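In this section we walk through a basic example: taking a raw amino acid sequence and producing a predicted 3D structure, encoded as discrete structure tokens. The instruction is simple. Fold the sequence below.
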Amino acid sequence: MRLFLDTEFSKLEPGAKLISIALVDEDENFFYAELNDTYQLSDCSDFVKTDVLPYLKGGKYVMSEYDCRLALCNWIEERNVPCIICTDAPSWDLPLFLPLLQPCIPENLNITESILIRVPFNVAQDLVIRFDYDVHNALADALVMKKATLGY
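The resulting token sequence is shown next.
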């Protein structure tokens, strides 16, 4: 099963800190979390402060890195089929995602390979408008990747 991954992070520079993460499976079941202990506001670029943080969902999605790790690993295992990660930004998403799985890497997750997804800008914009998604929200971005790849 393909799992569409997106992350939001503190800045577009080495050493970026994870803010939120989303995985969407082929059936549009999703995992979404916002971490409350991995970054400080002072770690965030101006872009992140104005274009990412305002679109966080809050509430039940806010959790510690530890709780996110456990919930994420359980969610992947609950797919009960072999899974592979699909992402449009592997050089940013995977270095934030893979350490989050340690030490409980789900046995059904292929961590040695991933699938690069390219969504044309006009297709992404159409999906954002059609489904009233927030831009620069990890869950919305993962849903856009899924819908652009597999339909809706």
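Looking at the output, two observations stand out. The two ends are 16 Å apart (CA to CA). Strands lie at 2-9, 18-24, 30-35, 62-63, 83-87, 109-116. In the next section we compare this with other chains.
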